[in-house]
Amino acid sequence: MSERFCDITLRVNGEDVRERVEARKTLVDFLRDDLGLTGSHIGCKQGVCGACTVVIDGDVVRGCLVLAVQCDGAAVNTIEAFRIPARLPTFRMAFQRRNALQCGFCTPGMLIGAQELYRAAACPAVI
Predict the structure, then answer these.
(1) Going edge to edge, which strands form the sheet with 75-77?
(2) In sequence order, what DSSP letters do the residues of 81-119 get, joined into one string?
(3) CB 87 within 8 A of CB 77
(4) Distance between alpha carbon 93 and the CA centroid of its chain, in Å?
(5) CB 50 within 8 A of CB 102
(6) Residues 97-113: what's their mean pLDDT?
(7) Distance between CA 76 and CA 78 in Å, rounded?
(8) pLDDT of 67 strictly over 60
(9) In angstroms, rounded to a whole number, what is the distance separating the alpha carbons of residues 23 and 41?
(10) Which positions ≥6 away from 96 have C-beta within 8 Å?
(11) Are the CB atoms for 19 and 29 separated by under 8 Å?
């Protein structure tokens, strides 16, 4: 039988993190419960609603579909890391102007998606 707990090391919002986590704990639960980063929300737990959206090693993913142990060695950014980029306030204002905020529960995930879509379009990867 495999271990119930695993030691992981990752970089979250630019800071190194070393933690012992339950092997079956999702990334979004780890971020919220263990690190106190509550900007990523738990919604459908099926990867459909996008409330748990984070960026792992440059890829936009649903935090409810990824186990924390799968992120060992990875760089993870949550909505809390997106306070610095210059474009995010512009996205927030656009969401507000267009009434896209609704209740605000899934807004952090939508803002991350918009920011990363803009980044990818402005700086396409060279293959």
Answers:
(1) 15-22, 5-12, 75-77, 53-56, 59-62
(2) GGGSSTHHHHHHHHHHHTT--TTSSSHHHHHHHHHHHHH
(3) no
(4) 21
(5) no
(6) 82
(7) 7
(8) yes
(9) 20
(10) none
(11) no
Q: What is the pLDDT of residues 14-65, one digit of tens each?
A: 999 999 999 999 999 999 999 999 999 998 899 888 999 999 999 999 999 9
pLDDT for 20 equals: 97
Token readout for 117 is 């879509």
Look-up: residue for tokens 């896209």?
100
φ and ψ at residue 30, rounded to 5 degrees: -60, -45
Instruction: Please list, residue by residue across 96-113, b when 16 or more beta carbons sit within 10 angstroms of its beta carbon and e when fewer do.
Output: eeeeeeeeeebbbbbbbb
Give which of 77, 72, 65 is closest to 31, Cα–Cα: 77
Asked whether the CA dihedral 23, 29, 35, 9 is positive or negative, the reply is positive
- Determine the 3-state secondary structure of 80 from DSSP: helix
Number of alpha carbons in the 13 Å side-chain half-sphere of residue 97: 6
